[in-house]
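User
Take a look at the entry that follows and flag anything odd:
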Amino acid sequence: MNNLAGKTALITGASKRLGRATALTLAENGINTIIHYNKSEHDAAETVKLSLEKNVISAKIQYNLKDIGGIKNLLTEAKNVTGKLDFLINSASIYPVDSLNSLSDFNLNNTININTLAPFVLAREFNNICERGSIINFLDARMTDFEPNHISYQLSKQMLLNLTKMMSLEFAPSIRVNAVAPGIIIPDNISDEESLLRLKEGNPLKRIGTPVEISSTVLFLLQNEFITGQVIYVDGGRNLRGNVYGY
């Protein structure tokens, strides 16, 4: 695998949870981290602090991804931190509650803007300004299921799935585009043991994943330069549920 020390990555939504775990795993491997956030400035500052402790360059940048028209400025600012940009990790997303009956035009547009259009425009601009590099999109292991209470979220992730494959062809050979599809990951605060047990039973491996199991997969995709256009499901086999359980 390639040594990535000295490279620079922009990670969207990196103030906490999977975004933070990804940033810290990259920092542990010598990758400079640009921490994007929208409202969670305190958490973003903590992610930067933890990254700096790993002897890399790290900085935080605030940007509201709903502002699609100004996304180029986010990439320019990120690139200016170290003078280059090698990796783009699109981990930011929202998870609204909506159904087919309740979904409004506004909510649908808002979810698609943040979960689909923002990663797409970021990736397109990254391709325009970087001679070589790698893009990782965060999807969801349940994106092809039918979740009646998260319609806009599922639509947005299905669109990003298709865009990942399209961009991997369009941006090759200089830019690789892959995706990670996490399953159920250990929550920050575990209080409902009954729900936890039910979630464990929902995949063949009978357990919940950890943030590091997601971030280490991102690192693998960055290191292996002969992989593009692929989606890695990190979900304990949850995506096979329909075939295994018959629904």
Notes: The domain at 8-184+210-233 is CATH 3.40.50.720 (Rossmann fold). The radius of gyration is 18 Å. DSSP finds eight helices and seven strands in the chain.
